[in-house]
Design brief:
The complex is a heterodimer.
Chain A (H helix, E strand, L loop, with lengths): L2 H7 L14 H12 L10 E7 L5 H7 L6 H5 L2 E8 L6 H10 L11 H6 L1 H10 L2 H25 L3 E5 L6 H4 L6 E10 L16 H4 L13 H9 L12 H12 L4
Antiparallel strand pairs in A: 1-2, 2-4, 3-4
Chain B lengths: L6 H5 L2 H9 L7 H18 L3 H8 E3 L6 E3 L1 H16 L5 H16 L12
Antiparallel strand pairs in B: 1-2
The chains are: A alpha+beta, B mainly alpha.
């Protein structure tokens, strides 16, 4: 699938085929995509544990539930629990020197082993590790980028997914989650029950409401010719609700006895 | 158990009208509406409480600005009461879950955020 179509296809899927398992190789594709994400200091910000729904005991599955993540946990066959590794600054010096040795961080941009060995500890690493807000803020941004890439890879593989909050009180012990892994999101993965379209693209505000050119008072105005091009490339698709969406939902609810 | 609640009496309430409209059940054949309201009436009679009373146990406040807080414990108790009531109906599992989810639908469309159990 072309990149723009993958982006266009991504939407939060909440209606899965509960009986259709996700192939392990597709999960690997998602994790590889996460592993290629942009990351400052080439650090390992993200940790993830993959489990299949049916491998968890009912008690553990129940322990993940919160008011907005309940039905989805029953329907999605695979869960990816994403965490922020709060020990990500560890090993920074070695990784940065590796980037210098690989010609990635170059002297033209101020990089040298001497800078990494003698300066970076106090000016960068200590400032991150000594500031809880900064530590978490960087961790959350970089983890989010990895999650986003895994998410897009899922759609490229014909899957659907949705990110949710989850309760990790019991699961941490059961899955041996270290204390320095901070809960991010649980990604519920499966095959969309209502196809890739899944009710159409979700509503978004126009670019001009959130994006600017030159200064924050000058909205970025969308060019209709680009919109036409992106529509052809399927980055922009039929908006929700698609025709018959509510009949589709009603039939799905009826199949699984769900509330209308 | 009381017999105070009937389809007709509940159909006249604002909560049931809101439910049927919000769930788009009001465009469905009348039997689709009355069969669901009958389940709600049965549940109300079993609990000895009106829909309004049950909702009020979960949604607190709202007098001044129409904004409510969810009573987590109350919601959990309501969910358990729905399951217990369903289990006592003597139906098969699919019918039991579906009946409970009809009640959940009523509460959901009246602002009680809860999710259904799927029949898998």
């Amino acid at each position: 699938m072309e990149f723009k179509e993958v982006v266009g296809n991504r939407r939060s899927v909440r209606h899965f085929l509960p009986y259709k398992q996700v192939e392990r190789e597709k999960i690997q594709v998602m994790l590889e995509a996460a592993n290629r994400s942009s990351r400052s200091m080439n650090a390992d910000y993200v940790k993830a544990i993959v489990v299949n729904r049916d491998e968890l005991s009912e008690e553990l599955r129940d322990s993940l539930r919160n008011p907005t993540t309940t039905l989805d946990l029953d329907m999605a066959p695979t869960y990816i629990m994403w965490f922020i590794n709060l020990k990500y600054p560890e090993g920074t010096k070695e990784r940065l020197k590796q980037l210098i040795d690989h010609g990635v961080n170059t002297p033209s941009h101020g990089w040298s082993h001497a800078y990494v060995d003698g300066v970076i500890q106090k000016t960068v690493i200590d400032k991150i590790t000594g500031d809880d807000f900064r530590l978490n803020w960087m961790g959350a941004i970089e983890t989010g980028q990895a999650i986003a890439q895994a998410l897009l890879a899922a759609y490229d593989e014909g899957l659907g997914a949705c990110l949710h909050n989850f309760s990790d009180t019991k699961i941490r012990e059961a899955l041996n989650v270290p204390d320095h892994w901070r809960r991010a999101w649980i990604m519920l993965v499966g095959y969309p029950a209502m196809g890739a379209e899944d009710g159409g693209q979700r509503p978004r505000r126009p670019l001009s409401e959130n994006f600017y050119w030159g200064d924050a008072n000058t909205p970025f105005e969308s060019d209709p010719a680009v919109v036409a091009k992106l529509t052809e490339a399927k980055l922009l698709q039929t908006p929700s609700p698609t025709p018959h969406r509510f009949e589709e939902i009603r039939l799905f609810n009826r199949e699984f006895g769900l509330p209308d | 158990m009381s017999n105070d609640f009937t389809v007709d009496s509940l159909m006249a309430t604002a909560e049931v009208r809101r439910w049927l409209a919000s769930a788009r059940l009001d465009t469905q054949p009348r039997i689709e509406q009355t069969s669901r309201v009958q389940l709600l009436a049965d549940f109300c009679n079993a609990q000895g409480e009106s829909p309004t009373e049950m909702i009020a146990k979960v949604l607190r406040g709202g007098e001044e600005d129409g904004q409510y807080e969810v009573a987590i414990k109350g919601r959990r108790q309501l969910d358990t009461a729905i399951n217990t009531w369903g289990d006592g109906l003597g139906l098969n599992l699919h019918q039991t879950i579906t009946s409970g989810n009809v009640l959940r639908s009523f509460f959901i469309h009246n602002g009680v955020q809860m999710q259904g159990r799927p029949s898998l």
